[in-house]
Structure formats: C-alpha cells, structure tokens
Structures
1.
Amino acid sequence: EGADVLLLSTGGMLAEVVRSADELLLEGISAAVISVHSLAPFDSDGLCEAADRFRLVVSCEEHTVVGGLGGAVAEVLMEAGVETAFRRFGLRGGFPEGVGSHEYLRRVNEIDADALSRLVRSALRESA
C-alpha cells in the first residue's frame, strides 16, 4: 500500500515494479502496487476507486504502451471522469532494440525499475 502513486503491473513486469516501489520509498515516495492478472474481465470499478486515492496512476507493461493494460486503464479513467494524473510505462514505438538477456533488454529499452522510478519522480513533479 502507498499514498503517492498507484503502480499497476501486468505480466512479467511485477518484479521490476516492486523494485521501483522499494527504490522510491527510500526517497520518501510511497507507492501502492497492484498486479492486474486479467484485462478481460477488467475491474473498472476497483480501478476507479483505487485511482481516486492517488496523485498519480502508472500502468506498467513489458510490451508496447498502445493497447494492453495502459489502453484499458486510460479508457476506464477517462470514461469515469477520474482526474488523477496518468502515465503509461512500456515500450514506445517500433520494435525493441538490442540482443541479450531479459534484464539487459529491459535496461536498454528503458522498461526496468530505474526507468520506472525516473518516470514516477518526473510525473509527480509535474502534477504538484
């Protein structure tokens, strides 16, 4: 549980999201982490209820930000009129770059815990 940011994770991103939440806590940023196990059915009411308690909501996924969890969260928040700041965290544009281990590819493509922490810090500054 947290008070500043709600991090929604799906698939293999959960460990990176938890690492980021731990890193942010050391800086005084309190993050709640929810593992979203299913996009269909999607718990729209639960999301809106949770999102209302935070300054920032971030969807975190290991593939493109188009569609998927980020798209579902954006649709639900917009249609419900929830005014919490929202960011999508994942791959942006084209195919991922590089060849190597899973950890290496996350780092190179900026979808690791450090990149997520940077996004959260920046978005919280913008929403202040």
2.
Amino acid sequence: RHVLVTDLGLDRVFVYRLDTATGQLAPNKRGLGWVNAPPGSGPRHFAFGADGRCLYVINELGSTLTVFTYEGETGEMRPVQTVSTLPEGFAGDNACAHIVVSPDGRFVYGSNRGHDSIAVWRISGECGEVELVGHEPTRGQSPRNFSLDPSGNWLLVANQHSDTIVTFRRDRDTGRLTAAGPVTATPSPVAIVFCHPM
C-alpha cells in the first residue's frame, strides 16, 4: 500500500501512497506524510521486520540504528528506540551503509564503514526493540553492502575499498558471524543480491 523513502539530507523517512492499479505514487493522506529521524543522523537504508510491524532504519551520519513501529494500513511510524552501531569507546570516523533483517526475523545486521564491521542485534522487545550481540570485522575496508543468502546460513560482505567479497557463516541460534572460505577479489563491489528460487 505504501512506498517508503529515506531522505538523508532532511533526516526524514517519507511515506507515499501506492495506487496498485496504476503504479502511481501520491502523498500519504491517511496517515503522516513523513516521520523525523534524529537530527543529523542521516537515514540511509531500512528493512522491515518479519511481521511487517517494525521498521529498522540505519543512519549513515549518526552511526545509529532507529527502530520504528509501522502500521501497514495507514503507513504511520513511531520511533521506539535508537542505538549506536559502534562499540563503546570507538573514536574514529564511521559511516553506516546497509541493513538486513534475518529471514527468521530474530536478528538485525548493519554495516559500519570506518570501523569496518557488521553490527549484530537480537530482536528482543515487544515493539521490535533490539539488544546488541556484537561486532564482526569484515576482513576488508568499507563494507558498502552485504546480503544473507536465501537459506539464512551465509552472509556475504562487499568491501568496496579493499576490492573483496568475504563470506561469513551465520549461527542461527546466536546470530553471530564467523569468517569462512576464501576471500573473493573483485573490483569495488558495492551491492550483492541473491536470486531467490521460484
């Protein structure tokens, strides 16, 4: 029913109504037209929770993750939690990039460019709130994008500035990642998309 758009410069997530017959977009008049992200945070990418009632937005400039509740009928969102993507004490430059919710709906993953890690959170709250599991180094520089394979067992990371794709095995019970297999060399990888079986 809706198309959501992150606007990094305005610190907003916009909501548009989708006409499924024509494919046209219009301002959302049944609910809010946008929701504000924390000032200066720079929302970049988002992912829905498994039940579609939570939205996880990764903020590039603020190195944070914001959790929103989401109402599919009206497109309304309400922020419920904002947490850092970085470990305590990290003082270097960082910019977040991508975010993924695991197929089982239990974990959220986000990439840090600068700290060069994947942050892992467990979804634990009634409104989709998260708690930190840990950080896994990406074995490369500037993880611009990453993707879980359809089975949910493997996570592949595109390290843009070190020209590598690194494969990690995902523990389904803990959500943690472990580097596995050889590193694949490829020029400036920026996106990984799996073809799902029909």
3.
Amino acid sequence: MTCRWILKDNHLAISMADGIYFPSASNIVSARESCEKIHINNYECGSPELDIPDLRFSRFNCTLKVELACHNNDLTLFPYVEKNGNRWSVIFCQGKIIDSIVVENRWFFISNVDEFQEVFNEVGVTSSGTISLSQYLKLKKFNFERPLFEDNVDSYSLLKTPNDGSLLNGLGLNATLYPYQKTGFEWMAFMLEQTHGCILGDEMGLGKTLQIIAILSLEKRFDRGPALVIAPISLLDNWVNECRKFSPTLKTLIHHGSDRTGYYKTFMDYDVVITSYSTLCNDIHFMNMICWNIVILDEAQNIKNFDSERAKKCKAIRRNQSIAVTGTPFENHISDILSLLEFIQPNVFNNAKELSEQYSDDVNGGKQIASFLSTLMIRRVVANVSNDLP
C-alpha cells in the first residue's frame, strides 16, 4: 500500500487510503535518510522531500510550551511552540503529543515532549482543548513540584459566578437563599460533580448550614445514598433541628451515645446521619461497612493536625464526595489547610505530611497554597455580601 506526505495542522503527515497518520520524528528522520522506501504504519513511504520538495529540515530543535487558561469558565490546555514571536499549535495523535512541527515551511524536532507526555499520561490528558477541573488541579500540583506549564487561570474567580438558579427548583426548602448563598450552593454542586470535594469557608453567621442542607436535599433528589455529617457534640442537635426546619423531607439520625445503633444497615434508612468526631473515632470500622455518598465535616478545623487520630479517621472514611465546612480555614500553620485539602481531594493531596515539608510555613508557602485554595474553597465575609443581607 502506498501513501504520500502532506502538511496538516502545522505537522508533517502521511495521507493514506484510510485517513491521515502523524508519524513520530524518528519515523520522519528514517524515511528521509533511507535510500529505499520504508514501512510506516504498514504503509510504504519514501522521503517526505519527494512529495514536498520545498520543505526544509532544521538542524536545530525547538521547545514545547503548554498554556493552561480559562475561557467562559471552560478550562483549556494549549500546547505550542514559539517562533519569531508567533505561536504554532502542537496537536495530539492517538493520545500522544506529536514530537515535531513545521513552521514557515521548516521542519523542527521538538526536544522536550517526553517530560510533558509523562505528566499527561498520569493525569489522563489525551488531547488539547478543554480539560476537567480535576485534571487542572493535578497539573497545577505537578507545576509546583516541577514548573512545566504557563498557568494563566484566574482561580480566584473560577466557577464562582451564579447560574440561573434552576438547581434549587423542586428541592422543597423552607427558606429563601440570599444571592451569595445561591452562589455558594451552585458552586458546591458543581465542585462535587467535577472534583468530588470542596471547602465552604464562609465567615460565621453567613448561613453555611443552610447551604449544606440545600446540597443534602439535592443529593436526596438523585437518591445517591446516605450522607454523613461529623460535627462537635454541641452541634449535633442543632443539625437535626436545622434539617427539620429547612428541609423536612430529610430523614435524619443522630449516631451518638450509649444507645446508638450497632447495625450498619440502619444507616441506609436515613438521608443524613449525624455523628461526633469522638464517636467516629470509636466506630470507624463499623461506619466503614458502607460507602457514604457524601461526608461533611462541620467545624473542619478539628482535623487541622494531620497527625491526630481524629484527622486520620476522618480521612479514612469510605466516601464518594467530601465537603469541609469551617469559618476559620487558616489558623496558625500551612499544615492546617493542607490537612483539609487532603480530606477533600485525597487523589491530589494524598499526603499532607509530605506536602507540609514541600511548602514553607511562611508567607511564600501561603501564596503557593492560596492558588490551590482559591480554586477549591469559596469564602465570603460579612463585608463582601452586606448588600445581600437585610
């Protein structure tokens, strides 16, 4: 079977009867240097210069760059090379970055593709264009460990704009959410769908519990299974009362005290199980007999010490989604917030202790963590939302 060489999307390609194939740089060099025709992808190919006689081959390499950006809340990944002040896009072929490019009729070998490809394989990126928020977070974490990407995402405003409010329809809430509460609810719903975890860090008095109850009501609508709320002992009754007040259809159970159930299937009869940090530590093996749809930590600063038994047990809970609720996400040290990040994003921040050694416990470390935190946390103070309040 024969074929011919063509230029396609800034790359040297082979046009075949069943489509177009982008060979690797080594294939191209072999075809060019061989005195006879060689086989590429089961096709017999001669030198590309026979089909494209004016194509020149550079003796110099060029360098791949990758930009991370956000357009209309869509996160994007754009691989390119830069020549003479212009950008030339580099494409993927069958999930792999092509390691050569043609710029102004000159062919260049791209020398640093492998280091990007290694990261792309681990993160699951197989094409340029739109990427998920979860992929962005993993790429961002790689970037701190080994700077590779141009991160031009404004994470402070990312996905924190309200939508049309339709998610609240039909939830049966006995409350009208203030505009900032609607924004918080919609943002958390999106984050759970995209990354399975987030932090609600509003200042005290701004109605964090109501926003969480709206999320619990949304989860009930989809019948995704029981939720677990872990809170200080003094707040257990308050959670039951607030659920009954704002969403009476939620079936709640307090799992605490000497008369608490010893039969794990009991949890399946309720929408929300509410327990204390101490009870969780005592019953962790029993409570892990089911996989919770969502686990919510109220006053989540209780797990700021990542070496504590309380923090370890909370992170060990089998769950699909996680929300940390706290009015004081930062207290004293960088490690405080790293422990929360490990809880909400165990696949990204999988070892808070190791991370605490990477990030200095000072202003510079705080700035590095802030870029992650701004993506994964929504926080409003009274001064920010005073116009929404009566």
4.
Amino acid sequence: MSIKKIFLAVVLTGLSLAFAQNTSSQNFNEVCKNISSHKVTKGDFAQTKLIKKIKREIKSSGTFIVSVDDGILWNTLKPFKSSMAITKTGIIQTNAQGKKNVVATGENATFEQVSSLMTSLFDGNIDALDKNFDIEFIGSASNWNVNLVPKDSSVRAFVESIEMAGQATINTMVLHEPSGDFTKYEFSSQTFADSLTSGEKSLFN
C-alpha cells in the first residue's frame, strides 16, 4: 500500500470525525454538535476517482461505518469486494478471500505524523483542526459547505484541499490533489447507533 493511499485514507478518517471541533463560526459549531452527537454512523457510499491525465473516472461503491471509539470502516462491494478499517494505530485491509494486511503506525514517518493528527481529532483536541487547516464555512447549520486547505506544505503535496457539504449529516466529500485529480465521496442512507455489533467490532481488530 503506497504512502499516498495511506495518507488519503487517514485524512478521510480524521475529517469524518473532525466535526467535533470548534471554529469561530456559530453555524459551523452547530453543525459540529449535530454530527458529533452520534457515536456510530452507518450508511452507503459511492466513490468517483477522476484521473485527469488520462481523462478517466474510476467508480466504486459499498457501505461505511464511522465509530468515534474505533475508527472508520470502508466496505467496498463494487467492482470488487474488499474492506479497509482505519484505527488510531493502523490500517487493516481485508481482500475478498479474507486475507488481512495490517499497516502499523510506526512503519513510516509520514503515516505516523498523519496518524498523530487523526488521534488528536479522535481525542477531541479542539485546536487540532484550526492548527492544521485553513477553514472556510459557507451557509447555515441546515445547509452548509466547508473547504479545508492544509497549512503544512508536505500535506498539500498529497491533498490540496478538501470540500465537504451537507445538511443534518455529511452528504459529499471531495479530495483535490495537486495534479488536478480528485476523489469524490457521496454518502446516503445514513443511520445511527450507540455502539458497534460484535461482528462489526471484530473488523477493527
């Protein structure tokens, strides 16, 4: 698994939970409060990856789980079955045959640095988001858009900016890369729970 793919996966995890943080916008604070009030969020996702150089779109879809205590699980169903669980300590990839591949935090410096940011988001570090991103919030608590630009130039080498939009929940997320490529996630059919089932819990171990 490339450092770039690890970075993108970890950023998605952190940002899915980053709404627990505070910013100067009263409306944004209300959005944060609404989204972070759920311990577990489940739903469907559709991913579109645009590769600008060859003018090609790659699409996939499946289900996802975001757990404040455990991390995020991407369960891809199409075009091929696989899953990726992202925790505070590493990434667990499982292929269609059930074979697991684990990447630990300490295996490379880049992943360790990004994981440190993710951990601060999980732990409710209020200053983490403002410290690491320039944030632009547009709209109201019921219909909003957020644009995040990494302050660190080494981070911008992977992700130039991240756009999110939603209402009561996050509906879309777009990661823009310096090359002009982007990855768009569309979220739907979201439901909420207080905890994971035992089967779901096992996927994070």
